Sequence to fold (502 residues):
Amino acid sequence: MDFSKSQAQIHNNGSSLFDKFSHNRLNTSSERILYKLVNVSVVFKEVRALSSVNLLIEKGDFTFLTGPSGAGKTTLLNLLSGDINQTSGSVIKNNVNSNNLFVSRVFQNLQVIEDWTARQNIELCYAPEIFKNKKEFDREVIDLVNLFDMKPNLDKKLTKLNGGAKQKTAIIRALLSRPDIFLADEPTSALDRENAKRLYEVLKFYNQKMGMTVVWATHQLDLINQFHGKLIHLSKGKLLRSQ
Amino acid sequence: MIYLKIIFNVIQNNLVKFVVFLALSVSAMVGFEKKEYLLKNYMLFNIEKAQMSFVTDELGKSVEIKNKLMVLPGVKGVYVEKSDQLKGKLENLFKDDGFQEIIKENDLSYVKYTLTFAPMISDKSIKLIKSFIIKILPGKDVVFSTPRGVKNKGDNQKIHNSKLLIFYTIFSLLCVLILFLHHGIMVDLRKFSYLYQRFQRVKYVPIKAGLLFSFLCAVGSSVLIFSITSQLLLIPFFVMTSFLIMMTFLLNLKIYEWK
Fold:
């Protein structure tokens, strides 16, 4: 993915190209569509966090959401997860079974219980209805823990762990809830390049083998340049896009 | 199962807070139910004991007289002092010059009886007690002091009202404390139920967990009260349950924000 080239193209052609492009795409609705955002704006008091955003997210998409701080990435994720509502425009969940779609998130502020151990935080997501039994869940925990090199930290309280380990805990927890849609807000902010790459590989695996849709918000353009996926660029609440 | 797990986590995280909350809730409920008993038996502060004393020259039979006085209705206690114990005190007790002179001129022997009365004793009862004393000491000198601390009906009502005011002030403070503790626990319950809702496929977790928690608290308190008083206090149970349920709904009105 040549991100710099595509980004330059977006900037050169302006939003009109995107509007034309998205208009065509928005008309090609299919059963695969998970979210269809049409002219969506989100305004907080006097701040316009999102402005006339048109967007399609299809089942099985692996999407990178980029943009500088304050561009509206978190707001867009909040909108997709249903945590906030749009001020204007429409958000259509187009899938027949959209009500049953489960969204899991990795938050920028992680939302982990610091007084608990990493294991306790991870086990919070154990749902008997999606695993055959606890053993199956434990096996998956061990696999992910080994993948993220978290084994030595598993029974330590999060207060005693560094930011990277806390972030890995939050990622593992979100993955173990076996979501249909995985929304990650700056999931690599405390990870080194090697761990970030490993995260991409794990997410790609879940994406390809289990059909999990991934939206990964980040401002680390140099990092995602090495990865493959759709690219959405936000700037000052407006959406520019690259394939 | 998931709701019990959440409640267990919350109690584990707020063990001290929860125990104090439960203890105060039980105390408040029992206290409210047994209000009159508490006012009568424990809230005796700021109330002067009703007392009256008399002196007599009947030196013998003091034990017999004491026993006779003790069984009179309205008499709580009788304290006997002999003249040799009293000499110094008598001069201060009876300021009348004539009496002072008698004490100085004659080496008289007296016995002083101090009677303590029940808090709500009436003037009429004291008059009856006085006539009884005169009756059991025929031909003897008896000098009564002015009764102290005897309240009339209006005074008693005033005292009762002030006691009620104090009781309700303490009760309100207790309720505020209970509310404060409950809020602290509920905030944690919201936090846990929010997380469980996020990562489990279950809906309305905060409300369901909150309602279950409220119900368990109310039942738990009732069981504790029953074990203490052997009574099922239905009204406090319903008041507490409704209060906890109302608080659960109020706290869940606002969308939870992670802190």
About this structure: Residues 1-29 of chain A have pLDDT under 50 and may be disordered. The radius of gyration of chain A is 18 Å. Strands of chain A lie at 33-44, 47-58, 62-66, 88-93, 103-106, 181-185, 213-218, 230-235, 238-242.
